[in-house]
Specification:
The complex is a heterodimer. Chain A contains no helices and eleven strands. Chain A is mostly beta strands. In chain A, the strands form two sheets. In chain A, strands 2, 4, 5, 6, 9, 10 and 11 form a seven-stranded mixed beta sheet that branches. In chain A, a hairpin with a 3-residue loop joins β4 and β5 (about 40-50). Chain A is globular. The termini of chain A are far apart. By secondary structure, chain B is an all-beta fold. Chain B is about 0% helix and about 50% strand. Chain B contains no helices and twelve strands. Chain B has strands at about 5, 10-15, 20, 25, 30-40, 45-50, 55-60, 65-70, 75-80, 85-95, 105, 110-115. In chain B, the strands form three sheets. In chain B, strands 2, 5, 6, 10, 11 and 12 form a six-stranded mixed beta sheet that branches. Chain B is globular, with a radius of gyration of 14 Å. The chains are: A mainly beta, B mainly beta. Chains A and B meet through β4, β5 and β10 of A and β5, β6, β10 and β11 of B.
Chain lengths: ~110, ~120
């Protein structure tokens, strides 16, 4: 089954404690991205990657890091989480070219930073 | 710069009636336009897109959207709503002229509630 998986689905942590949210896709997609969803703000892109070792900032990259060492994986790293990073996070993937915006989304990770 | 607006936080419609979820956009060039749907506790699912060509675009689950360049709109429509269509709908845009950037801008979302 074609899918994007994220782990963990729920995470409660404390300010400053480094964490990683994993994302994996099994569709051999070139493009992967991370979004955060906040009430009243819709989705905002954090980072995206066009291929292995190619990453770029989205609209709200501050406080986040990513890496793309393998085509299927695109982890999101919060090295020193803060309460304003409490949010619902989605990973997404898609083919390149004009299909790049036909994104497949993961189920989401709800993060709470206290 | 690119932006998208969904002027209604919530749309209520009776089952069997036609539905419209509104979206307007702003880009400096020509737009790529998209609609996604989010069911409760799920990720977003792609519904349809406008890239070029026919202004009426048909997508999944019987939805369609009409690109109107003069009104800078891309409203989502369905002739007969189902209770199962109740979900959160997102419009998104990317300016074709934004070069190597692949950052779409999403609207804030419209909650569609279909009453039995």
């Amino acid at each position: 089954e074609a899918q994007v998986t994220q782990n963990p689905r729920y995470l409660i942590t404390v300010t400053g404690k480094k964490l990683t949210v994993t994302c994996s896709q099994n569709m051999n997609h070139e493009y992967m991205s991370w979004y955060r969803q906040d009430p009243g703000l819709g989705l905002r892109q954090i980072y995206y990657s066009m291929n292995v070792e190619v990453t770029d900032k989205g609209d709200v990259p501050e406080g986040y890091k990513v890496s793309r060492k393998e085509k299927r994986n695109f982890p999101l790293i919060l090295e020193s989480p803060s309460p304003n990073q409490t949010s619902l996070y989605f990973c997404a993937s898609s083919d390149g070219g004009l299909a790049v915006y036909e994104q497949y989304f993961g189920p989401g990770t709800r993060l709470t930073v206290t | 710069a690119q932006s998208v607006a969904q002027p209604e936080d919530q749309v209520n419609v009776a089952e069997g009636n036609p539905l419209t979820v509104k979206c307007t956009y702003s880009v400096s060039g020509n737009p790529y336009l998209f609609w996604y749907v989010q069911y409760p506790n799920r990720g977003l699912q792609f519904l349809l897109k406008y890239i070029t060509g026919d202004n009426l675009v048909k997508g999944s689950y019987g939805f369609e959207a009409e690109f109107n360049k003069s009104q800078t709109s891309f409203h989502l429509k369905k002739p007969s709503a189902l209770v199962s269509d109740s979900a959160l709908y997102f419009c998104a845009v990317r300016d074709k002229g934004s070069g190597g950037s692949y950052i779409p801008t999403f609207g804030r979302g419209t909650s569609l509630i279909v009453h039995p």
